[in-house]
């Protein structure tokens, strides 16, 4: 696989018969696999992603890429297949073709576009399974419960924006940072700014 290694796994370093480095192979990282199982158990039991992230950070457990845990790294986006509780590799399925790149004619830069799930390519890799099918299904049921619970709030937020098609622009977006921890400030509740390090990971 040419993609990112992903939390719960580590790269295999070995040479082939010609003495060249074999690329793209990975194996389960036992220590991180225990954290993955813990996240799925707690999430399935109804614990919020922000509470899970807060506890992991309080215990000094490093998140993906060695960074502090945030609620977004746990809940991710189910439609795009990102986030801990949406990673099918944990049930032994590797998925390709999540996205593609196109060139923005106005800037000349590559822009990522997500492909519809019908175009994703899946392959069984049972040797990389970390959690059981039952635990995966329990997490999916909890996602459905949360989606239904917050459906009305999401619709109300869309109605407040212009035709529900774009987010409101804020004058200070991208300009503020926390004087305590250095994290960025963002809109966190309603129209209120707050430290992302506090509201997303409880590290501040």
What's the multimeric state?
A: single chain
Q: Residue-averaged pLDDT, rounded?
A: 84
Question: In what order do the strands lie side by side in the largest sheet?
Answer: 1-2
As residue ranges, the low-confidence spans are none
Strand content: 15-25%
Count of distinct strands: 8
Our Rg estimate from Cα atoms comes to 19 Å
Order of helices and strands: EEHHHEEEEHHEEH
Summing up helix and strand content along with how strands pair, one would put the structural category as alpha+beta
Largest sheet: 2 strands, antiparallel
Overall spatial form? globular
Helical amount among residues, as a percent range? Answer: 25-40%
> Kindly, what is the distance between the CA atoms of the first and last residues, rounded to a whole number of angstroms?
36 Å
Q: How many helical elements?
A: 6
Task: Explain what the structure shows.
This protein is α+β, with helices and mostly antiparallel strands and 204 residues long. Helix content is 30%, strand content 16%. It is built from six helices and eight strands. It has a two-stranded antiparallel sheet with strand order 1-2. A two-stranded antiparallel ribbon has the order 3-6. Strands 4-5 form a two-stranded antiparallel ribbon. It starts with 8 loop residues before the first strand and ends in a 5-residue tail after the last helix. The mean pLDDT is 84.
């Amino acid at each position: 696989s040419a993609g990112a290694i992903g939390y719960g796994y580590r790269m295999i370093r070995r040479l082939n018969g010609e003495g060249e480095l074999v690329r793209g192979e990975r194996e389960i990282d036992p220590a991180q696999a225990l954290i993955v199982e813990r996240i799925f158990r707690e999430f399935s039991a109804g614990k919020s992603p922000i509470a899970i992230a807060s506890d992991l950070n309080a215990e000094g457990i490093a998140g993906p890429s060695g960074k502090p845990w945030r609620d977004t790294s746990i809940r991710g986006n189910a439609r795009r297949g990102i986030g801990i509780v949406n990673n099918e590799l944990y049930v032994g399925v590797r998925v390709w073709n999540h996205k593609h790149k196109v060139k923005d004619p106005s800037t000349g830069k590559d822009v990522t576009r997500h492909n519809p799930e019908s175009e994703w390519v899946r392959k069984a890799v049972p040797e990389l399974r970390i959690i059981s099918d039952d635990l995966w299904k329990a997490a999916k049921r909890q996602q459905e419960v949360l989606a239904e619970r917050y459906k009305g709030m999401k619709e109300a937020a869309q109605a407040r924006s212009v035709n529900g098609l774009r987010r409101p622009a804020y004058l200070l977006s991208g300009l503020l940072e926390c004087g305590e921890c250095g994290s960025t400030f963002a809109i966190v509740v309603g129209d209120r700014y707050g430290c992302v390090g506090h509201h997303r990971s409880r590290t501040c």
